[in-house]
């Protein structure tokens, strides 16, 4: 039987790395993409995978040329993408008045426009095979707001609206699109936020964790990579074939208040 194929963005680090490794362990051929190709190559070595099984792939999700090149490579190699994980992300923390204009636009290009254009490029392949699972890595900030994160919160909220529309547009095929929304996961992106928020608020990094990050979360815990991979595992299972347009919220009851 032909191997199932997954394309993961931002696979060199954090959540993307963990999900790419998980899919590889589940027997998928994985296109492990990242804007940083040497980091993607290092990630594949770290997994102990061959570059045939996990293909390090240069893909800056803000570049239409990169998207077109990667889709052409996949078409030439296998002709199918069963699972797309829209994960690549950046963050910038600043009051709106001081928010650099280019940075605000870039955050939205990476978190919203990129996933939309990559999904757009993958859908013809998914429709041709009458199978596809699109999983967006959203965030608790797709549902709630925090000050100084206007670009990120706007983009992540947008991702949920986008997914609902695409679920309607793909409903006649065996294609689903869902958004996984974790609270904080301790990755490089969050380590940087802890440092940035400490600077912005003039408090220590421990205080950022206790009084800002985990304070609104009744369970007061970082979400683990294992929890996220298992959620992805569910969304790509047959049991979830009618689960589409949904948000899977791993937030320790944050949004219950
Ligand atoms: N870490 C958390 O607490 C948390 C919580 C909720 C949601 N998320 C989301 O999870 C996703 C992954 O975050 P992470 O914490 O693993 O971050 P990370 O910084 O560890 O990894 C992000 C990866 O994305 C890549 N990347 C950045 N811009 C890119 C671009 N334009 N094109 C392609 N690749 C690009 C980086 O090179 C990096 O390898 C993001 O969408 C983030 O918003 C993270």
- Report the average pLDDT across residues: 96
Strand order within the widest sheet? 3-2-1-4-5-6-7
Roughly how much helix do the residues carry, as a percent range?
40-55%
- List the ligand species: nicotinamide-adenine-dinucleotide
Instruction: Give the DSSP E fraction (strand runs of 2 or more residues).
Output: 5-15%
Largest sheet: 7 strands, parallel
Please write out the topology:
Blueprint: E1 5-8, H1 14-25, E2 29-34, H2 37-47, E3 54-58, H3 64-77, E4 83-86, H4 101-128, E5 132-137, H5 150-169, E6 175-182, H6 188-201, H7 205-213, H8 225-235, E7 247-250
Parallel strand pairs: 1-2, 1-4, 2-3, 4-5, 5-6, 6-7
The structure holds nicotinamide-adenine-dinucleotide (NAD).
Residues 9-10, 12-16, 34-36, 39, 59-62, 87-90, 110, 137, 139, 182, 184-185, 187-190 line the site of nicotinamide-adenine-dinucleotide.
Describe the structure concisely for a colleague.
By secondary structure, the protein is an alpha/beta fold. The chain is built from eight helices and seven strands; from the N terminus they run E-H-E-H-E-H-E-H-E-H-E-H-H-H-E.
């Amino acid at each position: 039987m032909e191997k199932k194929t997954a394309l993961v963005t931002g696979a060199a680090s954090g959540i993307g790395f963990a999900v790419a490794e998980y899919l590889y362990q589940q027997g998928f051929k994985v296109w492990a993409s990242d804007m940083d190709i040497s980091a993607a190559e290092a990630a594949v070595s770290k997994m102990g995978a061959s570059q045939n099984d996990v293909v390090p792939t240069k893909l800056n999700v803000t570049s239409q040329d990169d998207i077109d090149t990667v889709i052409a490579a996949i078409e030439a190699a296998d002709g199918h993408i069963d699972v797309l994980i829209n994960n690549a992300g950046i963050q910038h923390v600043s009051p709106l008045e001081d928010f650099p204009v280019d940075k605000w636009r870039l955050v939205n290009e990476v978190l919203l426009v990129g996933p939309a254009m990559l999904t757009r490029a993958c859908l013809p392949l998914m429709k041709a095979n009458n199978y596809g699972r699109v999983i967006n890595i959203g965030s608790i900030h797709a549902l709630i707001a925090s000050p100084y994160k206007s670009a990120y919160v706007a983009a992540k909220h947008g991702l949920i609206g986008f997914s609902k529309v695409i679920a309607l547009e793909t409903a006649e095929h065996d294609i689903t699109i869902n958004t996984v929304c974790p609270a904080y996961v301790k990755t490089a992106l969050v380590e940087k936020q802890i440092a940035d928020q400490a600077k912005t608020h003039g408090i220590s990094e421990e205080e950022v964790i206790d009084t800002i990050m985990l304070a609104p979360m009744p369970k007061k815990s970082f979400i683990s990579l294992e929890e996220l991979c298992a959620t992805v595992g569910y969304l790509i299972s047959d049991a979830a074939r009618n689960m589409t347009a949904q948000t899977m919220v791993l937030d320790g009851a944050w949004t219950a208040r």
